[in-house]
Amino acid sequence: MEDTILTIEEVANYLRVSDRTVYDWAQRGEIPAGKIGTVWRFKKSEVEKWVNDRLSSSDKRIKDDVMQVKNILAPNRVIFISQTSRHDALVELANTLSSAPQVKRSDELVSEILKREELMSTAIGRGIAIPHVRLSSVTDLVMAVGVCKTPVTDFHPIDDMPVSLLFMIAAAYNQHSYYLQTLSYFSAKLKKKELRDGLLNAATTDDVYKLLIEA
Q1: What is the mean pLDDT of the segment spanning 164-175?
Q2: Which of 87, 132, 156, 176 is catalytic?
Q3: Helical pair 106-119 and 86-97, crossing angle rounded to 10 deg
Q4: Cα–Cα distance between 86 and 182 in angstroms, integer?
Q5: pLDDT at 53 (0 to 100)
Q6: How far apart are CA 152 and CA 122, in angstroms?
Q7: Which comes out higher in pLDDT, residue 70 or 62?
Q8: Measured CA distances, 3 to 13, 29, 55, 120, 149 (Å)
Q9: What is the C-alpha separation between 73 and 18, in angstroms, rounded?
Q10: Is the pLDDT assigned to residue 62 strictly greater than 80?
Q11: Among 52, 45, 47, CA closest to 22
Q12: Is 77 within 8 Å of 98 (Cβ atoms)?
């Protein structure tokens, strides 16, 4: 299958940084890129891998005592999802996340989550996806979690493993550092097979919440 080619503007939109930042990264060789004439272009699969590698790198991880899951996740924002398509699963979880008081515009949240997913998959492998956005209509970082009762097959993850665990994060537009730290934290935590299996086998959403709080 032919790899999708992205422009600087598309990569900047996906990463929530300026066009200039992406240009500088490309110039310095910090992000995988190639030139067509004088114009930078980026392979979607290579950018996806670059993002996942950065999120998983040890120098990006934060200590357990810094990240308090209970500060960003409430029991009523942990749900079991029966949807079988990526679109429907994301909409259901986004609507759940919209119940948080930090989210002021549910329509924008749903729209931006879907738009971002169309640009590039947020599946990071091992049956996990972490859809995430930063919006000016969100006042503080907040999260919702979905356990898919039927694995969702159309997330197009790098390892081709259907997605069973969804961690959706919305942050204020000026929370770039905290946003990246949160992504890094969960990317690292969810590498543990025991935790993933525990979440998938949990009988109730309260059990899922407790596992995440205690992990």
Answers
A1: 93
A2: 132
A3: 150
A4: 22
A5: 73
A6: 13
A7: 70
A8: 19, 20, 22, 12, 31
A9: 29
A10: no
A11: 47
A12: no
Torsion angle of C-alpha atoms 81, 167, 89, 159, degrees rounded to 10: -110
62 versus 136: the higher-pLDDT residue is 136
- How many C-beta atoms lie closer than 10 Å to residue 36's C-beta? 8
Please give the Cα distance from 194 to 178 (Å, whole number).
Answer: 26
Spatial distance between the Cα atoms of 168 and 145, rounded to a whole number of angstroms: 6
3-state secondary structure of 169: strand
Q: What's the chain's length in residues?
A: 215
Residue 166 near residue 145 (C-beta atoms within 8 A): yes
Model confidence band, residue 188 (pLDDT cutoffs 50, 70, 90): confident
Rounded to the nearest 5 degrees, what angle is found at the Cα of 8, between the Cα atoms of 3 and 12?
Answer: 105
Look up 156 and say whether it is catalytic.
no
Cα 195 to Cα 11, 51, 187: the distances in Å are 32, 23, 12
Model-level pTM?
0.73
Is a pLDDT exceeding 60 seen at residue 132?
yes
pLDDT of 60 over the 50 cut: no
Lowest mean pLDDT of 46-60, 76-90, 156-170, name the range.
46-60
Token couple for 140:
């503080």
The secondary structure of the chain in percent helix, strand, coil, rounded to multiples of 5, reads: 45, 20, 35
162 backbone dihedrals φ, ψ, rounded to 5° = -55, 150
Predicted pLDDT at 55: 62
